[in-house]
Amino acid sequence: MSELRGFSLSQEELFVCLIVADLPLPLGFDDLANHVFGDLPEQYQNYVLGTAERSLIAHGLLELTEDQPVLEPMVAEWLSIISQPSQTWVILHQPAGQKQQANYIHHANNQYLFHRGQGGIHQVIALPQAREIVQAALDIIEPLELELGETLEGTLSETVFRSIASTRTIKRAEVVTQLRTGGLAPNVAEAFGQTFEQLRSISALALLKNKPESSVQQAFTLVCGEQQQWLLVPEAEGQLYVRNLDLTALVQVLHNFAHPQ
User: Fold this and answer.
1) Per CATH, which fold does 1-83 belong to?
2) Alpha-carbon distance 229 to 155, whole Å?
3) Which end of the chain has fewer CB atoms surrounding its CB within 10 Å, N or C?
4) Could you name the domain of life of the organism this protein comes from (predicted)?
5) b vs e for 204-233, b when ≥16 Cβ sit within 10 Å of the residue's Cβ?
């Protein structure tokens, strides 16, 4: 498997691999055991693990030796990276009216690995270099190539934004009123309110440094509509800096995200 650039595992196979390699659960999947076993009685759980183990053996990802099971070396290395990275780029993307999709790009040992778990299947894909993080984010967010009539910006209460973002049936006039109450000027509130009326997606992005200790290095939100795209960045406590941006500016934001100073 020297040319391996990616692989997919069922959640059951991933769970077995982590047990064999004695690795912690990857970021965002603390409840993996619940997904694997559900309400299955403990006496039957080994049947699930046994089936997953045989599948790994059949696909050449696991070998049974006299002493203990051994993972294919590159699979073991990659799972070590996604379980114990030095940095992680998190992209939580929620298209309008759909469930949120969690995406992770882990970095360690000069390698960048994209990890997504969805529908019981976990994908792990190698990214050649850091700049591929930008393309991965663009592929997930799918921003539009929009032209700005004018630059709009302001400061908004984070509480107000979260309230609006979590509401699905709120009317535009009510959104605009809340945005103005939250601190935006009337023209900015009107434009941002239109974006919520024509919402395409909301994406929350964060860069986490995991070593020597866990900390958030960057965090921001992108709100994409049919006619405007907005950047929201935490400012003072409880406040968000808000501005609209075209595709070029959005790509620059993602570049800075992928290449932290």
Assistant:
1) Arc Repressor Mutant, subunit A (1.10.10)
2) 16
3) C
4) Bacteria
5) bbbbbbbeeeeeeebebbbbbbeebbbbbe
Sheet holding 199-209, edge to edge: 6-10, 121-127, 111-118, 101-108, 87-95, 199-209, 215-225, 229-234, 239-244, 153-157
Calpha distance 134→76 (Å, rounded): 26
- pLDDT tens-digit profile of 11-58? 999 999 999 999 999 999 999 999 999 888 888 899 999 999 999 999
Beta bridge partners of 156: 240
Task: State which amino acid sits at residue 125.
Answer: I
Nearest to 188 by CA among 223, 144, 143: 223
Give strand pairing partners of 157.
239
Taking residue 260's Cβ as centre, other Cβ atoms within 10 Å add up to 12
The whole model's pTM is what? 0.91
Each residue's pLDDT tens digit, 140-156: 999 999 888 899 999 99
36: left (phi over 0), alpha (psi -120 to 50) or beta: alpha
Q: Domain coordinates of the chain in residue numbers?
A: 1-83, 153-258
